[in-house]
Design the sequence.
């Protein structure tokens, strides 16, 4: 079976499970600068696609691959894949559910702490020889600590649950919103309390996004939801940039209706330097913290992800259903 891989060959070789050597597969690595449709046209006999979570796979591309049986995201997200087109053609679309939960949860808590405890501004003050001035300013600012903040999790899947686990030792009250409320036993286990989304936004000092991008959630953090939030609240996003209405968030920051942002993901990606949430006026720049979509990028995450991807391919080779199908087949 030929497998088209849109990802770094070095990365795939570093995390490839030992059992792959025994599989009857022919991996074909496509250069990142090669147009995707061109690569598909060159390999019409490919039966599987492994793609980075931000790589678009549309109907036209699938039509170039008449033998395609499996499209597998290298990550958890799959919103760049045309699920309906794949379902119509009987192609399994799969993701790596839960593989990066621990890693992203760690990153989420890190961003919360950096935003609350002056991680970037403090670093810059020391480098500029302004350590005492910065220290005096913070001492007079009633700077919050995470344990005294109310945290709201939007979504309650694997990553949000892993985040709740890591927040529990801090002692902060944790609330969550999800389209389907969890059982009382689950809520007690994770130490969380359910709130409708607007109440969650109004109550919490930190609002952390952990939901997939769908028609319902795209730009869910819009002017209306922002108007419900505390003007001192911190918005944390380690999910997807498409969840934010960029202009509305920018306006809230500039008008003092949002305390700050700490984001690992922005849309579009790659993120340009003139992005409305990056190219901020000087007076609000210190209220924004960024990381370059590193939440799920750890060795542990990649080992778990690649083991699942190749195992799903092995299942397809054996005529079985792969793991974590996301397009309803």
Sequence:
């Amino acid at each position: 079976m030929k497998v088209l891989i849109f990802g770094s060959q070095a990365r795939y070789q570093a995390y490839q499970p030992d059992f792959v050597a025994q599989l009857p597969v022919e991996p074909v690595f496509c250069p990142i600068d090669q147009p995707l449709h061109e690569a598909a046209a060159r390999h019409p006999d490919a039966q599987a696609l492994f793609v980075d979570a931000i790589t678009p796979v549309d109907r036209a591309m699938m039509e170039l691959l008449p033998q395609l049986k499996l499209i597998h995201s290298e990550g958890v997200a799959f919103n760049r894949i045309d699920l309906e087109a794949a379902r119509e053609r009987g192609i399994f679309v799969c993701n790596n559910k839960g593989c990066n939960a621990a890693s992203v949860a760690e990153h989420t808590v890190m961003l919360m702490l950096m935003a609350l405890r002056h991680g970037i501004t403090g670093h810059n003050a020391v480098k500029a020889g302004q350590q005492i001035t910065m220290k005096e300013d913070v001492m007079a600012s009633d700077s919050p600590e995470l344990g005294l903040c109310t945290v709201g999790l939007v979504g309650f899947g694997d990553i949000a649950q892993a985040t709740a686990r890591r927040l529990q030792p801090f002692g902060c009250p944790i609330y969550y919103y999800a389209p389907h409320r969890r059982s009382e036993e689950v809520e007690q286990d994770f130490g969380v309390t359910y709130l409708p989304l607007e109440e969650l936004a109004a109550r919490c000092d930190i609002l952390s996004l952990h939901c997939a991008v769908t028609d319902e959630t795209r730009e869910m953090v819009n002017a209306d939801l922002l108007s419900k939030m505390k003007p001192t609240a911190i918005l944390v996003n380690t999910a997807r940039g498409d969840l934010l209405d960029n202009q509305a968030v920018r306006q809230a920051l500039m008008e003092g209706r949002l305390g700050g942002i700490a984001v690992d993901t922005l849309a579009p990606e790659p993120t340009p330097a003139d992005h409305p949430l990056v190219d901020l006026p000087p007076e609000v720049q210190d209220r924004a913290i960024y990381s370059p979509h590193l939440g799920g990028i750890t060795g542990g995450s990649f080992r778990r992800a690649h083991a699942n991807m190749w195992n799903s391919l092995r299942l397809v080779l054996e005529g079985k259903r792969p793991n974590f199908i996301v397009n309803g087949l």
Summary: The chain has 14 helices and twelve strands. The two ends are 21 Å apart (CA to CA).
